[in-house]
Amino acid sequence: MAARGPERVSVLLPTYNERDNLPLVVWLLARTFSDSGIDFEIIIIDDGSPDGTQEVAQQLEKIYGSDKIVRKLFLFPSGTAYIHGMKYATGNFIVIMDADLSHHVRMDFMYCGKQKEGNFDIVSGTRYKGNGGVYGWDLKRKLISRGANFLTQVLLRPGASDLTGSFRLYRKEVLQKLMEKCVSKGYVFQMEMIVRARQLGYTIGEVPISFVDRVYGESKLGGNEIVSFLKGLLTLFATT
């Protein structure tokens, strides 16, 4: 087991058309890490955004320094974007999260709190446990999310309450091993990561989070993503 507590945390932040959200989420992350005394870097992995996100990332690199902001361009699904970003991560713990301000950026809860509490290999934010919740979604999207999570619990029995969330902290070596095992892309990727972690015997801690609908821009969730999720779920059920 690795030593307790990371010396440096790398945040992998995939972006697509996040010009308006990116400055605020980076500022919040930088302030939180600095206030908590945690050394950090933020790796922005942009998917060829046409809205000027890359130019904003360049300005943020100038403001915070290239040791804190790392810019990369990668034109592939989110799962492989994480693989690409991890190549440049220098932290021994890695956080994956969205750039749309949906996630509470209090990293001290996940690192200084839960991770240290149990020396966990993975700490996952959960919307479905304790005082966690979702805000800003209409009834249809809440039902889709709840239904997807219910199906994963019934079919996969993963030992975690929120498989479809994308706010997690990993030991770097654990994330590397899981990346080698996972074959899914898109929305199914997050679910497979937890299932494979259970198979490999990694420890998972959970922290209740408040998930807030994006401030700017539009959600990418649509019919094609739902169909892909169901196909991926059945594939995992048949192969795990």
TrEMBL record:
Q: Which domain of life is it from?
A: Eukaryota
The biological process GO terms on file are: dolichol-linked oligosaccharide biosynthetic process; GPI anchor biosynthetic process; protein O-linked glycosylation via mannose
Q: What is its main location?
A: endoplasmic reticulum
Give its E.C. classification number.
2.4.1.83
Q: Which reaction does it catalyse?
A: a di-trans,poly-cis-dolichyl phosphate + GDP-alpha-D-mannose = a di-trans,poly-cis-dolichyl beta-D-mannosyl phosphate + GDP
Fetch the CDD domains from UniProt: DPM1_like
Q: Give the GO molecular function terms.
A: dolichyl-phosphate beta-D-mannosyltransferase activity; metal ion binding
Q: Required co-factor?
A: Ca(2+); Mn(2+); Mg(2+)
Q: Which UniProt keywords apply?
A: Endoplasmic reticulum, Glycosyltransferase, Magnesium, Manganese, Metal-binding, Transferase
Mind telling me which PANTHER family this protein's record contains?
DOLICHOL-PHOSPHATE MANNOSYLTRANSFERASE SUBUNIT 1
Know the name of this protein? Dolichol-phosphate mannosyltransferase subunit 1
